[in-house]
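pinned: reference chain
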Amino acid sequence: MDVRPWVRRSIILGALAAVSYAWYRRRVASTAHESQNITERHASAFLVRRSIDGGRLEPVREAVAERCVDPDDPRPLLGLEGAATATLFLDAGDDPELIWYVEVPHTTMAGWENPESRIEAAFPLEDDALVAEEARVDRELLVHAVNPHRPRTATGTNDGPLVVSGAALENGVDVDLVQLHLKPGLAERLADRFAGLSRRVTAGEIELGSVERWSAAMLEAESMYTESVVLERRPEGYVLCGYMETAEMAGVYDAYYDTWNPVARASELVFGRVLEEPAAILEYPLGTGLEVLAHAVDPDRPRRPENS
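pinned: its structure tokens
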């Protein structure tokens, strides 16, 4: 698979927005937004990690399969009432982990005092092979985007299952999670600046105008259903974690190089400057080293903001 589109869009969006948002912005009340696309203003995405004790990968795989045995019941993987999309990834590397991605609309989170703790407690699998994170990692959502035509099944078909795992994943939509280390210093400061800008966008203080429209056009061209970028501020440095749910990863790659989109084209100017290993994502196809164990969607997951 190729991860260039989301990385370029997310990183360059920060650079472009920081320089040019004054040209497009207008202050609006939070009730005045009439966006036609779900973004970080309307929903949040979270990553929760569990370390896997020793070489007990196979028991974890089996436990996930048992948890997702009913293809018509996504609730065990969604983890909590109102969640829209969820995926479990297995990192079988030197420090094996089970990683849970979950998308939650802001309407569901209304009234939550501590969303991070609520999500952490809803991790969909309990097993003695899993160990919670010892040190809490500072995570912040930078980008969230939803295609208004995204499917409401886990396979992309109108009458498909709501959850897929094991062999059934071959018939599902393409899902992946990429993790890329930022260079220390300037790249990390850019990420922090983008995070601050994203918070203001989420709060309804600014609107990115053309930048947001260009990004929405890329989402449509790539047949990207759901896309999130989470910044992890780890003790050893900053890591960008990009989640992608799409019809076909190869199509994402093709669409990226076929477009004149300014966000896509301008991104090539800065891409090699912010990542520690830019060459790792400049070649196609790219393996992330993660295994998708299960993917689930709510049949009523939102496609557009409620005010649209």
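why pinned: Residues 4-297 form one domain. The two ends are 33 Å apart (CA to CA).
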